[in-house]
Amino acid sequence: MTTYDERASLSDLTTTAERVRRSVEGVIEGKPEVVRLSLTVLLAEGHLLIEDVPGVGKTMLAKALARSIDCSVRRIQFTPDLLPSDITGVSIYDQQRREFEFKPGAIFAQVVIGDEINRASPKTQSALLESMEERQVTIDGQTYELPNPFMVVATQNPVEMEGTYPLPEAQRDRFMARVSMGYPSPEAELQMLDVHGGLSPLDDLQPVAHADDIVKLVDAVRHVHVADSVRRYVVDLVAATRNHPELRLGASPRATLHLLRAAKAAAALAGREYALPDDVQGLAVPVLAHRLLPTAQAQLNRRTSEQVVAEILHRTPVPSSASRAAQRQQPPMAAPPMAGAHLAAPPVGAPVMPAAPAGPPPAGPVEYGTQPPGARRL
After folding, report:
1. CB-based contact 131:146 (threshold 8 Å)
2. 204: nearest Cα among 306, 67, 297
3. pLDDT, average across residues 185-190
């Protein structure tokens, strides 16, 4: 169990994360939002799916993030002939010792890069399900723990669909967030010609953080405070995807957990010990959109999952400014005062209301209202 002295402080977290961010941005020019989302997923103990057209730097981002941390890294090139045992490992019979010996596969690393994951067969893709969710591998009835920290960074192309197998819903749901690189701006592309024109910047990239530092930072993110109103806001957003008329499959309870963890990591990267609704709003699209399945009518209308999530964000009430101000304080240790204790005493001669039945006071409802000043509008 990690004690308070062993836990990384918030200043240590922001300092280490800033070093990693600068290291990755030295390779990936003009994409600060993508780099920040990658760090958020790493500190939230999630996995990242990078989806975009070829040649925009998907694999370069995964390699830069992995090399910026002093940890074990494995790269898997997914192809149609890749076997599940190539990923998880296999037991080989040793004739000299007359016993089976387990040979670990490529999944036994702290950062696993899966290149073009949708080119492998569904049988091979399913080999990642247990390792991504439970961080373990079971071979021949024997369970092997994966190292800590553990993160899968997978890439796939939305085009060139010949010879590819779409990721099933269960596989996509394992990824905490999906991000698209997008084409760089002309200024960033011009800078890329100067930086990448000669040698690859990955050759000179040195680790700026150790794996043990990441473990402490992850533990610090777990202790970020989330108020009840923000938790309710996360639940309301996910529940709205399950009842939306343009979606035939909404987000799962795992998506609720992933959205909450990502919001806590984003708050820690911002230097706060508490999460805000703004953190949830900024991560709702990358965390929820790839898990949703639009209806056939929505596809005919060219409605994307990202547009549906943006609409849900616009319609779902945000916790009021009074609730948000209360989040900036640490949760009180003493019991809250009784409802109505701050009211003035009734005037003399006023009718006396009957006393409430004995027992604990009922929990007050979550306070919702209109969009507070400064809230992000999508």
Report:
1. yes
2. 67
3. 84
